[in-house]
Amino acid sequence: MGCGPSKKELSGVAEITGMSKKELQDSYKAFKKEAGGSKVKLDKFTKLVATMNTNKGGNVTEYAKHMFRVLDTDKDDMVNFREVMIGFHNLSTAGDEKEKLRMVFEMYDVDGTKTISPENMKIITRSQYQLEGKPMNEAEIEAKVKQCFGLCDLNTDGQITEEEFYKSGKSIAEMFELEGDE
Ligand SMILES: [Ca+2]
Ligand SMILES: [Ca+2]
């Protein structure tokens, strides 16, 4: 067929995810079929996430945008097969804990300042409500953010650093875990 994956697209994926060569090739085929190519832009990615979202009345637009930003590790405004596979693996229950924490930290740090502010956390929490199709309740969101800060802002300066999050963010990162392969 002449459309097999290039070495670069697959480099490291098998090692990190523990997939066999066959599984990898099958997933790649499925990805290309779904994505209509070897990379996807945000709009297409959002549609793919929407098809995976089983929450009634959920809107994935905001959540997908932040997920996309974190998955796009080479920052070319596209996510490719490798980025998706490694990112989803890290977020799975089998993923590397430190990588999971790093990804979730980056997801919260929407403005890339290397610290999470309460406002940053509100943005992501709101997007989770939208994803789940829950009615937006600002008081509830505020309370959730407060609770997370109580847990993670170890020196109580109103910002969560990466270091603090590595130490105390495990239970929060677990909320972002993806279901394993069916
Ligand atoms: Ca990319
Ligand atoms: Ca920030």
Automatic annotation (TrEMBL):
GO MF terms, alphabetically ordered: calcium ion binding
Lineage: superkingdom: Eukaryota
Keyword Cell inner membrane: no
Keywords of the record: Calcium, Lipoprotein, Metal-binding, Myristate, Repeat
Designated name of the protein: EF-hand domain-containing protein
Pfam families: EF-hand_7
Family indicated by similarity: Belongs to the recoverin family.
Every EF-hand domain range: 59-94, 96-131, 140-175
